[in-house]
Every structure is written in C-alpha cells, then in structure tokens.
TrEMBL record:
This is Cyclic di-GMP phosphodiesterase Gmr. It comes from the Bacteria. It comes from Halomonas lysinitropha. Residues 31-285 form the EAL domain. The lineage of its organism: Bacteria, Pseudomonadati, Pseudomonadota, Gammaproteobacteria, Oceanospirillales.
Length: 293
C-alpha cells in the first residue's frame, strides 16, 4: 500500500500529494490494526462495561445507570469507545460488540437483582449500524428473556441521527419495545442534523441533552437558551429530560433551576466498574442509615 501511495504521488509529481497520501495511508493502517486488535480483544478479558449513575435532581437518588464500553488492551493504553465504536461500525464487528454489551449488561443486572440490590435500570447504547441487522430487536428480547429481565431492568439509548435514518423495520421494532414499556432515550440531543418534527413520530421516553450545551451553559446565554427550550419541549411531550456531562456545581445549579429531571456527570459519579459501584452504593446506604447524609 505504501508503494501504491508512493507511485501515485510520483505520477502526480507533487510533494504535497505524497505528504497527503502518506498521512492517509498511516491513518488507514492504524485503523486496520485497531480493528484487528479489537477483534482479538473480544475473546479476552480486555473488554468491560463501566456504569455511570444518573441522579434524580429532585430527590438526589440514583435512578438509572448507563453502561459504557471500556477497552483496556493487555499491552497498552486504554482505547476510547469514541475511537473504536466508529471503526467497529465499518465492519460486522459492531454486531458482535453489540451482542457482548447486551449480554454483559443483562448478566450484571440479573446478578444485582438476585443479590437484592436496589438498582433500577441499566441503559445501553445502540449505534446506527447495529440497527441494520434485521433481528436486532429479537436478539435484544431474547437476551433479556434468558435472564428473566423486563422493561424495568434494561433501557436503550439511540442518537438523533440513528432515529432519523431509521427505516420502517427499525421504527416498528422500536414501537414494539415502547409498547412493551421499554425506556428509549435520545442520546446527545441537539447535536444531530434534525428538525424537531421527528420527535412527533418516534416512540421515545427521554431526551439526553448533549454535554456541549451543559458545558457552555454557565458562560453562554445561547447554550442556556437551547437547554431551556429542550427541557420545555421534552416536558411538553411527556418525556423525561436528562442533562449529560455535568462537571461542576455552577452547571448543576443552572440545570436544577431549569427543572431538568436527571443529571449525569463527573460532578456526581464517574463511570465505574461494577464492584466499585457496589462499594459506592453500600457507602451511601450506610451513610443514610447513620443519618449522616
Ligand atoms: P454517550 O453515550 O453520549 O456517553 C456519554 C459519554 O460522556 C461517555 O463517554 C461518558 O464517560 C462521558 N461523560 C460522562 N460524564 C461526563 C462528564 O461530566 N464530563 C465529560 N467530559 N464526559 C462525561 P465514553 O464512555 O468515552 O463514551 C463515548 C461514546 O461512545 C458514548 O457517548 C457512546 O456514543 C459510545 N459508546 C460507549 N459505550 C458504548 C456501547 O456499549 N455501545 C455503543 N454502540 N456505543 C457506545
Ligand atoms: Mg449514551
Ligand atoms: Mg450522550
Ligand atoms: Mg456522546
């Protein structure tokens, strides 16, 4: 491939072309290797789910958890899902990853249920390519059934763009889940290329306001205005509204004044492995019984 790039650059006879091709080539090679390593990671212990609590603004209680995929290669630095999910989406690997996430989240939720833990729901992220598999919803329902779980236990997060690109089959699948009582959230709300009219058609139960608005809200009146409008529309449509990426008290104070329902972010909890989350929950319980909290 390097030779091809070099030859093409030679034919063009321009240094800048060679430079561009070399960069492109390096990037493609890097991506290719990453997908290769990820494929092998699937059969190892390198993948895990972390869980980030969502806190009710009114009561301060932990309501739901979002499951977030983590990849810690045995021989190197962790790779962010923001990097490897889009790569996995370009191949069938995304379907295997999606199955793995579903299975792992269901297994964990069933374990917590069996241990009598007061945990509500685990929400899992679905990407666009995952929806292209014709039996995606059947697999979801089958997975839950294997663990004797229902709509109270597992929810879904989809981005606006996934919803807009949804065809009739996907729409019907979501409608069925919605009808069964599953919670379906629109992730990163406000960042997709969408008109608001799509909100009329989609069987969703929650909006998650993208963290870029939350981040800039204290300093930018435009971001505050967009957040207020999103919360207003969400509530008028009977949806639950979640603010993502709350990192400090200033942001939280604003969000509380705006009457957002739930908050998620580093100010409250980072995403954590299951054992760590259990320790946190145990700590909260003890604090509550002591009356010290
Ligand atoms: P997302 O679904 O919007 O997830 C929220 C992201 O915000 C997570 O990044 C989370 O760690 C991060 N976050 C939470 N609180 C804060 C905060 O206060 N400040 C900041 N700066 N960030 C915060 P993460 O885990 O790196 O995931 C990135 C994206 O990768 C996710 O965005 C989601 O689109 C995708 N992803 C993660 N896990 C999965 C998965 O299991 N399946 C699929 N299809 N996509 C996933
Ligand atoms: Mg999400
Ligand atoms: Mg999000
Ligand atoms: Mg995001």
């Amino acid at each position: 491939n390097a030779d091809v790039a070099k030859n093409r650059a030679k034919l063009d006879g321009r240094g800048s072309v060679w430079f561009f091709d070399q960069q492109l080539h390096d990037e493609l090679l890097h991506q290719h290797r990453l997908v290769d390593r990820l494929e092998r990671a699937m059969d190892s212990e390198e993948l895990s789910l972390h869980y980030q609590p969502q806190v009710a603004v009114g009561s301060g209680r932990i309501e739901n958890l979002e499951a977030l995929l983590r990849w810690q290669p045995a021989d190197g630095a962790p790779v962010s899902p923001a990097e490897f999910i889009p790569l996995a989406e370009r191949s069938d690997l995304i379907h295997r990853l999606g199955d793995w996430v579903m299975e792992t989240a269901c297994h964990q939720r069933a374990q917590w249920r069996d241990a009598g833990r007061a945990i509500e729901r685990i929400d899992i992220n679905f990407s666009g390519r995952q929806m292209s598999r014709s039996d995606v919803f059947q697999r979801f329902e089958d997975c839950l059934a294997r663990y004797d779980l229902g709509p109270r236990h597992i929810g879904l997060e989809l981005t606006e763009n996934v919803l807009i690109e949804a065809d009739d089959r996907v729409l019907e699948g979501l409608q069925r889940l919605h009808h069964l009582g599953f919670r379906i959230a629109i992730d990163d709300f406000g960042t997709g290329y969408s008109s608001l009219s799509y909100l009329k058609h989609f069987p969703v139960t929650a909006l998650k306001i993208d963290r870029t608005f939350v981040r800039d809200a204290p300093d930018q009146s435009e971001d505050r205005a967009i957040m207020e409008a999103a919360i207003f529309i969400g509530h008028r449509l009977g949806l639950e509204v979640v603010a993502e990426g709350v990192e400090n008290l200033e942001q939280f104070t604003l969000i509380r004044e705006m009457r957002c329902d739930l908050v998620q972010g580093f100010y409250f909890f980072h995403p954590m492995p299951a054992p760590e989350l259990e320790r946190v929950l145990d700590g909260l319980l003890v604090a509550h019984q002591d009356g010290s909290c």
